[in-house]
Design a protein that fits this description.
Layout: H1 3-16, E1 30-35, E2 38-44, H2 53-60, E3 71-76, H3 88-94, E4 99-104, H4 114-121, E5 125-128, H5 132-138, H6 140-148, E6 152-159, E7 164-167, H7 181-193, E8 196-200, H8 201-207, E9 222-226, E10 245-248, H9 259-269, E11 274-279, H10 281-289, E12 295-300, E13 308-310, E14 320-324, E15 327-333
Parallel strand pairs: 3-4, 4-5, 6-11, 6-12, 8-9, 8-11, 9-10
Antiparallel strand pairs: 1-2, 1-3, 7-13, 12-15, 14-15
Length: about 325
């Protein structure tokens, strides 16, 4: 495969990441326009409902006549339908861009090859499948939402060296921190990147967490709280943020049936394409038992509690490991 193509798709990945946390439920798309091996235009999807990456890239080109001699690189197939914005294919054709290099097809039924077909019918050369696996990984949230009709689910927890996520007897300081402050800041970054958090009632009542992005520059995600009897304390910290709260009570779901799948259906209907399940142990294990997860991010600290609440059980070896001061971040990525 042309290494030049890979180079510019990689650049498009970098640009696309800038839209993290702002474009959902749309995908994070990046676009680069190249003439004679020089980048003359760049763009990414900045905010849901606003211009797509291709339009921002075309608009960034100062001398529009150069577009007739350029190649447009984009991580996902250009749209060919009217949605919140006009079709990107129209602008590509209008500006007579002769070649378009695409990472992967858009699986959405409104696109799904139609964009490629429209470009080719206009006489534009289309190169498809550049860094295909990398593009699938980059667009994992969007692809999961479209193909599996559910959000991309990340399970996250911190556990002690001896396998507990909470001590047997809680002290007056809430919550009891297992991971260090740098690990917690990373978690706040993750929260800013996903649309919602899912926690159980016990986590709210015993830990009284804020569930915000206070140690990172980003918006607070929606919080979904599983509380069968909806008997939460209104003065809990979680209710002090402006983020939307959804209480999953017995008026909304049937607690005699698997809870995870019912919550996922509710989130799908609300166009939520990604969620982090933050606890507690019962809630996490529920999603594991129902096989409703795509990625696990687990912190393992050097602390020992000797007894308490046991951490969830997952019989899969982590794909990689990173040291954050004394904490080990174990990532079990992609539930096959």
């Amino acid at each position: 495969m042309n290494n030049k193509h890979k180079k510019y798709i990689n650049r498009a990945f970098y640009l696309a990441q800038k839209g993290m946390g702002s474009v959902a439920p749309n995908p994070m798309v990046g676009c680069v326009i190249v003439k004679n091996e020089n980048i003359i235009g760049e763009g990414y999807h900045k905010k849901f409902g606003k211009n797509h990456a291709e339009i921002n890239a075309i608009n960034s080109v100062k001398i529009k006549s150069q577009l007739k001699e350029s190649t447009l690189y984009v991580t996902l197939e250009p749209c060919s339908h009217h949605g919140k914005t006009p079709p990107c294919t129209n602008e590509i054709i209008k500006n007579k861009i002769p070649r378009v290099v695409v990472g992967i097809l858009d699986p959405h039924t409104k696109v799904s090859g139609k964009g490629i077909k429209q470009l080719e019918e206009a006489g534009i050369e289309v190169v498809l499948g550049v860094l295909e696996n990398e593009c699938k990984s980059h667009h994992k949230r969007f692809l999961t939402f479209i193909n599996k009709k559910r959000p991309y689910i990340i399970l996250k927890w911190a556990e002690t060296n001896d396998g507990f996520i909470a001590p047997k007897t809680k002290n007056e300081i809430k919550p009891v921190w297992i991971s260090n402050k740098y690990s917690r800041q990373l978690v706040h970054k993750w929260r800013s990147e996903e649309q919602c958090l899912i926690v159980g009632r016990k986590t709210i009542s015993e830990d009284n967490p804020k569930l915000t992005t206070r140690d990172w520059d980003g918006r607070d995600p929606m919080v979904v709280i599983i509380s069968k009897d909806n008997n939460l304390n209104e003065n809990s910290n979680v209710f002090n943020s402006k983020a939307e709260k959804i209480i999953i009570s017995n008026e909304i779901v049937d607690f005699k049936k698997p809870i995870g799948s019912q919550i996922i259906k509710l989130l799908y209907k609300r166009n939520i394409i990604s969620a982090i399940v933050e606890g507690g142990a019962k809630t996490l294990q529920t999603f594991i038992n129902e096989n409703l997860w795509d990625e696990i991010r687990k912190f393992k600290s050097p602390l020992n509690f000797k007894n308490g609440t046991k951490a969830p059980i997952v019989n899969i070896k982590p794909r990689n490991e990173t040291l954050i001061i004394q904490d080990k971040l174990l990532v079990i990525y992609k539930n096959n």
